[in-house]
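Dear Dr. V.,

Thank you for agreeing to look over these. As mentioned in my earlier message, I'm a first-year student in the group and I'm still getting used to reading structure tokens, so any feedback on how I've presented them would be very welcome. I ran two proteins. I've put each sequence directly above its structure. The first is here:
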Amino acid sequence: MLDYVIRSGTVVDGTGAPARQADVGLLDGVIVAVGRVEEHGVVELDADGMVVAPGVVDPHTHYDAQLFWDPSASPSNLHGVTTVIGGNCGFTLAPLEPGDADYLRRMMAKVEGMPLAALEHGVPWDWRSFGEYLHRLDGRLGVNAGFLVGHCALRRKVMGAARAAEVATDEEIAAMRRLLGESLAAGGLGFSSSQSRTHSDGEGQPVTSRFADRREMLAFCEEVGAHEGTTLEYITSGCLDTFSDDEISLMAEMSATARRPLNWNVLTVDSRAPEKVARQLEASDAAAAAGGRVVALTMPTLVPMNMSFLNHCALFLIPGWDSVMALPVPERMRELADPGVRHRLDELAHAESLDHWFAPLAALARSFWFFLPPVRWISDQMKLDQEFLADRRAVDHFGTSGGYASSLVALASPIRLAGDPEASTRSQTVSSFQEGGLASSLFQRVMMLLSCPFAIEGRTPLWWRWSTAATIAGVTLAASCLTLRGLAGWSSSRPSASLQAARSFRLPHLAIGQREHDDQPFDLRFRLPDHFTMTFEVMAEPAELSEIEMLGHKLGEPRELDPGRSAYRLWHRVKIIRASGHEQVEVDGQSRPAGSGPSRPATWLTIQTPAGRTTRLRDLELIW
């Protein structure tokens, strides 16, 4: 007698054979008969009018955390899925370094829309190695599950937070490769990575895998090739748009190097761009020619778009919206109820469509960044949010476009705005731009790219930088020198009327990264007047405020928060007033204790941030 017999179902066996009506018999958990089954079963099921098929294998899921509180992997199990593959897009919960659980939680909440509270309370986070993570799930699931080893966790464990945005050294690559090998030997199914512009961590910074170079990617592929039964999964910006030649070349070489298939997600069909499908499938042709195999994942339906202000979706990816959408839900709802906030978000959402020529000009600008002397100093000292600063609609919310461009040019230059006899040269330069009618959104964005290089999404290949720069660098630099020489001749010894009239300095958004063991404050090179009022908002956890200094004042602890929200990173309002040699500091409306600041008032606008952390400020305004 059999254990189970499924009677009279329409069998679709997955081999490509036509569907047929048949019985299916099972004994000891194994299918032992398909066709007309004469034996009876302990349990018999009537499947007449139903389809009987093997369980569906879902190769792209993010059940890495959910399986701890939902071992049935719902709702996938309700759709016939019996096997799920997690660890995709370079995002896994292991290997895990002590102290990094909160970073991984916030990253997963941002990139995959997982509820932060569920990640905090529904996952034990008591493992270190990839094998220990698998052991915590083994034997406790209602589905079959396998997991790829994620690129971000490997980089975080070996390179830490301080070097997350750097290209790995040979020693770091070797260490990550050993760690990947250990993880695969412990049961990892393969390696996954993302270099897509849409993936940022909980602090709004690009996920660390986006900074990996070709050398690092191929080293991982070599390690995957040393382990039987493994595979590759890769996400890049071209998966959403259209693959570039470089992306196709890298995917083909990754598969050929590993001697393993590589899958990417997701191939979509769009009647507005019928040629896109053929271009995307060129990656498979290139891989086959190189001896590899690239497989596109797709769906038999149109890709659905769920939009919600409550849960992570495409709305969270709109440039400039992160300051609102990253807030806890109650605060997010209060902000969205404000008509002024909704108006600003609406303008941000439509700003990009105004500048059709920005992308090619930005690529041209990026090609000769390394020729500009202040580039490396600026990139080491501060990280500006390029997307937020880029749109004219955004700067209009904080002040005039011309005034904001003037502040950025001064910020990127070693010339000081005040107390310096050469300041008039820079102010006259900006004034001439405005008076010449060149204060357009497009011009400002290109000018900011050249004067103050932002953390642009992606990196230009070296061959493009050198070939393009070799052609245009000489002409560009010569023209710049002649232009600046002429402007210097036009300047006078007194500040321009526009600078005198402004008597204010505004900066909408600023992110400062402090290296480990670096106790030097960040200097904005802005000489402070004797009397002023400065206001700004800083994003920080409660404990971090005591480590942040502004003009030598420790900001200390914020206002009392609800116990359930005390661990959130929130925006805190700070106000500093200087008058008659004395300074008063308020944080969230509460005055800091007298005598807690420096013995002498600061001369320059300086900020001290916690070592190894990134501090974000917004709406900084200095009025004197």
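The second protein is here, in the same arrangement:
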Amino acid sequence: MKKFIALCAVVVSLMAFSVMASAATRTVSIVGQRDGSTPNSLRQALRDCNEGDVIILTPGEYQLEAPLELNGKKNITIKSSTGNYYDVIIKGTSFHKIDSQRSSDVPGRDYPDYRNSGDEEKTPHGIINAGDELLFINSSSDITISGITFTLASSQGIKLATDSGVKNVTIQNCRFFDINERMIKGVNGGGKYLENIKIINNHFENAQVPNVGDIKWGEHDGDYVAGIDIMFADGLLISGNTFKNIKGTTGSGRAGIFIWVGSKNVIAENNTFINCDRGISYGVPGTSSVGQNMKNGLIRNNLFIGGSSSNGSGISIEIAGGEDIKIYNNTVYRPQGRGGIVLQDTGNNRNIDIKNNFIFGNTSLGGSTVTQSNNKMISRSGTFPSANFVDASNNDFHLTKTAADLIGMGVTLPEVTKDFDGTTRLNPPSIGAFEFVPPADKISGKVLFKTNPLLPILPTVTITDPEGNTRPIPVAADGSFGDIAILSGVEYTIKAEKARHLPLTMKKTFTESETFDIPMICGNVLDDPNSEKFIIDIDDLIALLGSYKASAGSAKYNVNADFDESGIVDIDDLIILLGSYKKSAPRV
């Protein structure tokens, strides 16, 4: 039996070693060289990686000859060694389409041209050149991509193949720059979902605008451009990203965030959109049925600034074919374009809830089933209240204390407990993406207590804010304190404890630079453990008289009756007790 147990232990150890050995860290370095030019290429690492591998890219430009592919992989991390997306650049060849151009027409394009050569299979899934896509993720799960720049693609930066069961993908802290059609694309999977996709803290920006002829099939007049375009998403989180200059040729480009075709359970939060033709689109106009594009979608704490000119689409939030959509606490500044919130195909939207939004720009809610409250909406023909914001001209839309029609004017929502910055929402909350937090003020004062000035034993004093955060108040020998940071107009709880004193609990709402006293009652000899409250009564008096005239060191001396800490229980202590007789404090 012992041999059998020992054998089992060896087998378990070998299995554990095997699992540990399967995970590796592969460092890829191709600084200044073309993909495939060294045995340690990124393409080879993606092809050969095993479950648990971490592929670390060292600083440099990774110039692609053809799209990269991650196929049939699980639990793989691809990241830059520094965490800075400016250091590692995965680079295609051209922002504009080259299908109608020859190699000589594209500066710097000297990679193999496989078109019409019978060698199309040298690139994955028939992609004809590295300009079309940069990274294709197929039949893979639990993938993390972090700290990388993807740039110069005429089609997609990262493409997620829905039909292959891609799920649990996190794309974070990456930069997508000058990518023509879609920076991140999730294609229609014929009913299969992209599950649990997280796109967090990335930067999406174009410095170029598509040409009319960039699209292979010649449609959309150069407006077929978007930041994120995903179909069939289930459990999609898009949070903390910046979208800048996502624009089409005519000003009617697709959105920074474009989610449609059967998607559900999608959250877009804490994102910033600057000069994009569209900000967030849940669906596309022309929808044929309710909920066809989006069910159970949430749009909260986003900031939309500017956009296309009045001749373009110019929509910050667009819903088409949506059901159970919540649009909460967004700030929209759209002085040009069609509108701040536009509900398209109004008969095919249902249960659209719009609350706590600040909108400067037109709105079009149509005949959709809409509930709305506590919004501040100003049409673009009105006057923008610039005094309500710290510096709107430089894109700072934090509230100032003069924003009386926004501060505290929202309705409390369980879905919005924090604001754009992660600050806890007050009750009631402010309207818009930013909660107004009053500037910190200072208080000072004095704790009144009995002690021996030659050898003071100081009380313990704490202050607790409405959120339950407790911090100490340092007390000087004379009981004074100062420069305690608080928010005026907010109720705090102060507690003070000291031996021979009744414990004190007080709630107080402070005014600016207030000075106040914390009065403590001395004379408590006994703890009264069986009482519902602390009280100075006959029992304390009897306990004091039992040690009357006793000095420190004697058997009769009761330190708890020596209120002035003089080393003797005498007439001074008796006077203190009688002055506090029958006073009490609750147990808290």
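From my reading of the second output: Residues 1-22, 99-130 have pLDDT under 50 and may be disordered. Helices lie at 2-22, 42-48, 538-545, 571-579. Does that match how you would interpret it?

Kind regards,
E.
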